Amino acid sequence: xxxxxxAFLFLAVSSCSSRPSVDESSAVRAxxxxxxxxxxxxxxxxxxxxxxxxxxxxxxxxxxxxxxIDTTRRPVCNLTRDKARQLVRERLESFGYTVTTHDTEDxxxxxxxxxxxxxxxxxxxxxxxxxxxxxxxxxGADDNSSGVAALLxxxxxxxxxxxxxxxxxxxxxxxxxxxxxxxxxxQTHPGERIVASIVFDCIGYKDARPGAQQxxxxxxxxxxxxxxxxxxxxxxxxxxxxLYTLATRxxxxxxxxxxxPNEGSGPASGNLMRSDHAPFWLxxxxxxxxxxxxxxxxPNYHHDTDVPSTLDPDFLADVTRLSAAGLSFWAGxxxx
Length: 336
Fold this sequence. Notes:
With 336 residues, the protein is of the alpha/beta class.
C-alpha cells in the first residue's frame, strides 16, 4: 500500500441501512464455496511470497530523483517485484489457468500486470475482478503478500468451476509507486462491464489490544484493530451492502463498512485513493477496497519488520472466506 498522510474524510457506516435481498440459495452456495479456504495454504503462500521478495534484487535507486526517495514512508530503494511476479504466475498456472500479461513499456518504470480468468457461461461480458498488487517494500508480509495470498486461494477454489459471469484475477504491478499498474490496466479496459470487484491491500494484521487502532477522522472505529475495513464510493455502495449482508448471514461480524462521497475524489483525494481501487473509481467502475488500515494499525508498515510472524492467520483466513463468498454471489456460481 502506498504511503499516505494520517487524515481520512470518510462517510462511515458500521452497518448498511438498506439491506439488499440475498436469497437463501445464493447465501448457502456462497458459504459453501467460501468454506473451502484453507488457512495453511494462505500462510504457505505468504511465506513463499515473502521469500521471493527477500531473494529479489530491489529497483535501482538511480531510477529515482533524490526528492523521490523517502526511506521512512516510501523506501523505494527496497522495492521488489520480479520474483513475486514469477511466483504468482506459477501458482496460477498450477491451478490450470492460462496466464496473460498486460505489459506497458516505459523508460523508467515498465509494468506487467498478471491476468487469469474463468470465462462466464451465461454472461461472459459481465466481469467480477479480484485484484492485489504483488510489488512490496522489504519482505512485504502484510503489504501485500497477505492480499496476494487471498487472491491465489480464491483462484484455487474457483479453478475448473463454472460461473455465470466471468471471474478475473489480476496481479497489479508497482502499486507502491503510485498505482502505476492498475492505472494502466483500467486505461486499457475502457467501458468494461465490471459487475463487482474486490481489491486487497494489507488484510492480515490484527491487534485486539485497546489502543492498537489509530483513529481515522470521519471514520468512527473502535480502538481495537480487530476488524477489516470494506471501503466503497457511492457508485459501489450496493456491492458493499451485499457484502455486509453476506457477512451477517455467514457470521462474519468483523466488517466495518465505509462509503466515501461521490466517486471518491475531492479535497482529500490523496487520502481516499490509497490503493488500486482508485483507478476503477475514477473510471466509473465498481470497486471495494478491503484493508486492515495498514499504518493506522500495523507498526511494521513499510519496514523490514513486516514479516509473516506478525500476521494473524485466522483473521486472514476469515477475510478471504468473506471475499470468496462475495465472489460466488456476484459471479453466480459455482454452477452445477
